[in-house]
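Session log. Operator J.P. requested a structure for one protein chain; no other inputs attached. Running the standard single-chain path with token output.
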Amino acid sequence: MLEATNKLKYIPFENFKIGQKQNFGAYEVTQEEIIEFASKYDPQFFHLDHAEAKQSLFGGLCASGWHTCAMTMSMMVVNMDANGRSLGSPGIDSLRWLRPVFPGDVLSVQMEVLDTIPSKSRPNIGVVVSKVSVSNHKEDVVMEFTSKGIFSRSEDGLGE
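Structure written below.
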């Protein structure tokens, strides 16, 4: 499990440029964590029982897509602690689970800035739209979504 810090460092909206890419994370997926998460939140047989999962469409025990989202969020928060935080998020769009995530996979994240949108109603903030791709150690993309993060404008004083 990755650990976040509590230091608050914010990135100003103006620091983001369309096309900018950032790579981070290295999250090793364990069988124990897959079963623990699934037991609580997604108790389907292919997330819980290795023998039964062999008979599934996936061919073996695999992580819940929601677990993959949670592991990705963990990597994103650790990255924010190191490089600067957003002020929150109005949500994600177009979430796709493209490949199963298996025990032993090591996940990493690539974020690409797609758009920067200054708020019309609140001039002290802006929204950064990013494509988030999560890959395993074989460089197979396992999940993608579009993320929206709210960031302070430099004039607000939080950004620097």
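Operator note: The longest strand covers residues 106-118.
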